[in-house]
Amino acid sequence: MEHIFVHRVIQNFMIQGGDPNSRNASPTQMLGTGGPDYTIEAEIIPSLFHKRGALAAARQGDEVNPERRSSGSQFYIAWGQIYTDNQMNQMEKQLQMMAEQQCFQRLANERKAEIMDMRRNRDREGLMALQEELTTMAKSETKNKSVLSKEQREAYTTIGGVPHLDGQYTVFGEVTEGLDIVEKIQQCKTRPGDRPEEDIKILSTTITEE
Known about the structure:
CATH topology of the largest domain: Cyclophilin
CATH architecture of the largest domain: Beta Barrel
CATH superfamily of the largest domain: Cyclophilin-like
Strand order of the largest sheet: 7-4-6-2-1-8
Shape: globular
Number of domains: 2
Structural class: alpha+beta
Number of helices: 5
Order of helices and strands: EEEEEEHHHHEHE
Strand content: 5-15%
């Protein structure tokens, strides 16, 4: 029987599997790009976040996947670390900056035709004025918005997790039993490309609904 591997492990971050190309893969084969010929619409829900043990869908990056659609088969289990309150304060500042940058990019995309026209006409002053306008709008739109909820801060300072992934990927489940197994897997030795030196096989899966 062919088994799919856990093909990517990064200590203190996450473990990833679900690449069908990992079935009987050679030790030197690069994995992580396999999957069905479809993706799944993003379902990013603020109340579902990357605490330790969270199960989430892998996906391609924003540059080729701006809608953040999920892989049809690949998934990861978050591990991360336990943060202090001071570290969470710094993390929140970083997330706030990311939110502002993403807002700016969205606003810029909405004005893409106008920007392209200014570039064609070499309207440098117009571009600078528009950049300032969009920066002000992005700051105003994201100002005073809480990036992390009370539940997120409590989870990340007690059980740990990966807060910088929140809002970026679809979380659809969590490990309720066997978190110690996840810990053992994420501590394994890896080859270049983050593939485990010894294959870690997924023997079976069961889907349950509540």
